[in-house]
């Protein structure tokens, strides 16, 4: 579980509810109509904007923003180093067995391509095409969240307009003006909260997560091609480390030197 | 029929109407003036912004967002594979007859160019120019919808201003303030609803549809040039599959293996 | 006259006036102060943003959005074909006389360069530089209209603020609040209407018109260089047709075939 | 003095003041607090956004938007032509004396580089680096004005919020509501006016001025390198004229022909 | 300490507080709920949008906007000149000792790479990768501040909506409307002030600071590679000066000439 995302949403809601309870009660804010218009309207318009298959895929991708990324780039370099050592000592064919132990599907597929003796140019091509599709899919996921982030406040305003129009039509009893207006404003409140605490920040986290995943996959592509080219495992490791930010690289080095010492 | 687009609009309207009927009646919202200002104003300004021919073309293109795309990329690859086999076995001239059975106009035209013995460079040129024009036309369609998506709320606000000004001029009877203001706000309601449930989401779906159509046509161009070059149908198929997303590619492969087994 | 632009503006105004007259009278909307602040302010700020010469040029260019484009690309291809035939039969020098009959100034200038025996590289260079200046000038025209489109609502709001401030200062007689507020809102109404029915849509139409003119001039450059290179008129025609959208190209072809048959 | 910029600001203010005086008095609008919050806040935030040195430089650059550009591109071509003639007749070293008569600092510096026998590649490098720095500095000047153009309305709104909050806290005497609200709105009025009549249009004029200056300097670089290469003054002039818009080029040509005739 | 940033914020606050105290008291503005919703909500949503590690890093980077940049580009050129002289006279290995006196970590690391006899191509590669990571990190820092700059007004509005809804629900005592509304508006006031005096200007200053730091590091990379190539210290200095703006370059030259004289 990614604590940041979940804690951010929960703590944000706590702050908002604290503000609500300081001067009123939460029950006032549970307005079924408002929820229907904002959430129903946003989701309906999203389905006008995107085909069903893409929306479902986006939901799967969004769940990533909530799940903790377990595979660190350094672990991938470690895995590739292991594969490179196996290939060096026992030949490329020995990778077939090793591939079974590889958890990452993309890396496993790449290893199988090497074992099958696929032409290096084709290996690069296939893996990079797949990378491009992964990137495209992530971008669509972000796009859907950003679309929802702009639709939610719009439907919030539409709901508030409906509330105001309904109230203004029947101005018989002045004492009902206040409560009716309060209800009308709740829809705008929902739209703003959904957009600013959920959709827009999630779209941003997805962008960052996508960048990390692309980096991990680029390391894999580079590593796989180097293994296929029969490069020295030590040199492969150095090459892949260039993909890491200097800070992590330095940590790795210190750890290594510790081991060597 | 593309269920997503139509269902999205209908379900969105149901949510909005549910919100309306919870506190009022739909009849209040049927205001001829408001409809005239928002829809009339938006369409008039669209005609100032775009020539008539482009607006009509955009309407035709928009209808695509409502129609289900029947031709899947995998079917195109299948068609091209059939053509490649015919060309291989019976020669390029035999494609003339085969071309008659091809449904897609773009593909048919490409086949006829090959049959006519057009220079490969010229074939690519002609097809890619046509592709560029298709893309351009799609972009204009989106552009018109986006323009309408920004004009509708603007004319909604203009209508509300008119309503407010008319009301404020004659503040004799306080009891009419409410209903007059309600009527004034209906125009803003219309503008927002049209923009956020119709124009903006439709522009987005059109963009996605355009991308799919361009992909299909790119597969055709690549396939046609490979057929003309006399490449092996099996190799052509592999080449074209690289255009498909990995997921669909895997499905195809499994199906094939099932057939082979 | 370009009917689309003028009809769009007039019909749009009719819709807006219909809305006004449904609940009030047009006379209320004729407020000299509002007109002075919105139009005067917008024009003044435009002169701060752009030098006088550019604003005048923009007005000339904008008038194009109102005038019907008479020269179709197919007519240009026809003209060039005629010139190519003359050059073929009677030599490049014979073009001097033919050039006098050419209406388009740009084309005429190009023909004179050829007649003068200018180096082909220099001809291309001179014509393309001129093309770049035309494009630049069109972009500035659009830029001025877009600037006005964002200034008009801003000065509309400034005018409304002035109206509100003046009204609020003297709240002696409650019966004047409504009419004063109505007058204040008229300025916002003017700003919005000018921006959304006039400036922004006109900027867009200018962009499309500019694209068409650039296309026409590109066809001329390509044609002139082909004539100078002594290419076959028939081949020149085919080459230039590649600049046309497929639909128009097909129409031309059918017409031709009709003539030939 | 650049009449356009100054006249635009003054005439714009006249329109606004005419609107003010039609329904109130200018004195109402002289509110010290409002001026302090809008101008003080905008300038303070600008200093948070930009270092002091850059803000001062931007002010110097902005003053250009008020000053009339005296050096026309045609005059520069004329100057360079004179230098080219001197270099041709009396040798490059004779330029040292001629350089003293050159007003433009950039051109003078370039001439001195040539006189010093600097390598042509290095001359181009040095001058183009300087050009890049000039462009960078102009962009920062525009950036500061644009930042102020978005800060001014924001602080206008902040001031209005303060005014409203102060008023709402002490609603004892209903007769003070109007005047207090009027005062609150004055801050928004200031912010809008500053942004739309001053900052945003000035940023735009600066952009156009920068483009003109860069063009002039590019002509100088090209001319200087041609002089150093010992090209014919006549040919240099023709080459530099290609930088001019066709309209001015034609005027020059007609004048020349008049002289020759 | 960077006076501009701190003074800008403090002076901005003074102007705002002066405005507040002119018509009310600062105590009214100390509303715990408002502060909780705006600051709490903004920070929570920022944690949804960015992982914890990046937010912490952004805070470290932001502190740079408050700290005075002590190392001027001219000092770096001076340092590199010293290193170049040492390398020239005593050989590359003598740099090891000299490196200890180098304050900048990046420069020191580069010197050590040279001392270790790393291949020049690899030195450039390693340093430029590190430069790219520094740039990336700065961009993320700006991105976080910009995100906060758009979240703060959004949560300000959410807080105001809560205040209005709570107030409207209980319209029993008209005398409480004013004060309740005042409290509601305070949240919007906080959001606007934080965004426009703090987050958005700070993001901008960070961008400028980042540009300066990248320039300094680029000078170092160029200098280190020149030292490694054994170039003449005098020539290295000239080369590096091309990175400086002309104004500073001129100052340096005058100082030098003064020294020489």
Give the overall shape of chain A, derived from the CA principal axes: elongated
Helix fraction of chain A? over 70%
Low-confidence stretches of chain A: none
Number of helices of chain A: 10
The fraction of residues in strands of chain A falls at under 5%
Q: Could you characterize the architecture of this molecule?
A:
Chains A, B, C, D, E: Keywords: Cell membrane, Chemotaxis, Flagellar rotation, Hydrogen ion transport, Ion transport, Membrane, Transmembrane, Transmembrane helix, Transport. The structure is a homopentamer of 261-residue chains. In chain A, helix 2 packs parallel to helix 8, helix 6 runs parallel beside helix 8 and helix 8 runs antiparallel to helix 9. The first copy, chain A, has a domain of 181 residues. Chain A has 261 residues and is mainly alpha-helical. At the D-E interface, helix 2 and helix 7 of D face helix 1 and helix 8 of E.
How are the SSEs placed, and which strands pair?
The structure is a homopentamer of 261-residue chains.
Chain A lengths: L2 H21 L8 H18 L2 H15 L6 H18 L4 H6 L4 H11 L4 H50 L7 H52 L4 H9 L4 H15 L1
Helix pairs in contact in A: 1-8, 2-7, 2-8, 3-7, 3-8, 4-8, 4-9, 6-8, 7-8, 8-9
InterPro entries (chains A, B, C, D, E): Flag_MotA_CS, MotA-like, MotA_ExbB_proton_chnl, MotA_N
Keywords (chains A, B, C, D, E): Cell membrane, Chemotaxis, Flagellar rotation, Hydrogen ion transport, Ion transport, Membrane, Transmembrane, Transmembrane helix, Transport
GO cellular component, one term (chains A, B, C, D, E): plasma membrane
């Amino acid at each position: 579980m990614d604590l940041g995302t979940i804690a951010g949403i929960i703590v944000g809601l706590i702050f908002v509810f604290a503000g609500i309870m300081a001067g009123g009660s939460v029950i006032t804010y549970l307005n079924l109509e408002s929820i229907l218009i904002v959430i129903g309207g946003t989701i309906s318009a999203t389905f006008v904007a995107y085909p069903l298959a893409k929306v479902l895929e986006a939901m799967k991708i969004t769940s990533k923003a909530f799940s903790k990324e377990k595979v660190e780039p350094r672990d991938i370099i470690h895995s590739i180093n292991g594969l490179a050592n196996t290939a060096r000592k026992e030949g490329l064919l020995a990778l077939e067995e090793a591939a079974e132990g590889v958890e990452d599907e993309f890396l496993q597929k790449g290893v199988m391509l090497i074992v099958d003796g696929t032409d290096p140019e084709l290996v690069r091509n296939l893996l990079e095409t797949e990378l491009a599709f992964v990137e495209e899919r992530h971008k669509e996921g972000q796009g859907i969240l950003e679309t929802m982030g702009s639709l939610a406040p719009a439907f919030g305003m539409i709901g508030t307009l409906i509330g105001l129009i309904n109230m203004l039509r029947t101005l018989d009893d002045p004492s009902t003006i206040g409560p009716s207006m309060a209800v009308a404003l709740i829809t705008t409140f929902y739209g703003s909260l959904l957009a600013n605490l959920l959709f827009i920040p999630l779209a941003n986290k997805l962008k960052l997560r996508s960048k990390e995943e692309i980096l991990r996959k680029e390391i894999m592509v580079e590593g796989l091609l180097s293994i296929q080219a029969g490069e020295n495992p030590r040199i492969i490791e150095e090459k892949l480390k260039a993909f890491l930010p200097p800070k992590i690289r330095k940590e790795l080095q210190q750890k290594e030197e510790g081991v060597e010492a």
